[in-house]
């Protein structure tokens, strides 16, 4: 399977388009879109609680991923197995994000490391609408920005110091956009 890598400071990404072949990706997309108990996500922003512009679902065992985690489904376990086989890494929880249309987005952030440790490996799988995924360095302004496209069936592995030094972001878009589902597999320590 062809893999793309990017040569930027402190950044370690491995992108594998077509990781899930089209027909199988179509089936995951339809099933996850319609059977996932999507919920809103309320998050603190300055002195307020705001609703994130996307829907989420969190899966894992209660021991590792907490009381609010939903138990693994056969479908998500099968996807996790594929990701484990491809990356040689262990993952025990997965966050699903649903971007309903171009108004949904995720703001600049890096993933909070209190559960996943420093320099975590995070494996992202996308289904549905292709959206740009942007990276910016937290302190090195000369490192520039990177924009990649995450397609239906793409696997992106973020590892090394990527999460420590870089933030990521899915921008809103004024274009007509179909729903996009993203799964980020994590290892809760
Ligand atoms: O939707 C994506 O590709 C990224 C999701 C994300 O940044 C996150 O779950 O922290």
UniProtKB/TrEMBL annotation:
InterPro entries with a match to the protein in the record: AlkB-like, AlkB-like_sf, ALKBH3, Oxoglu/Fe-dep_dioxygenase_dom
A Pfam cross-reference name: 2OG-FeII_Oxy_2
GO molecular function annotations of the record: dioxygenase activity
Originating organism: Flavobacterium beibuense
Residues covered by the Fe2OG dioxygenase domain: 90-189
GO BP terms, alphabetized: DNA alkylation repair
Annotated transmembrane regions: none
Protein's name in the database: Alkylated DNA repair protein
Domain of life: Bacteria
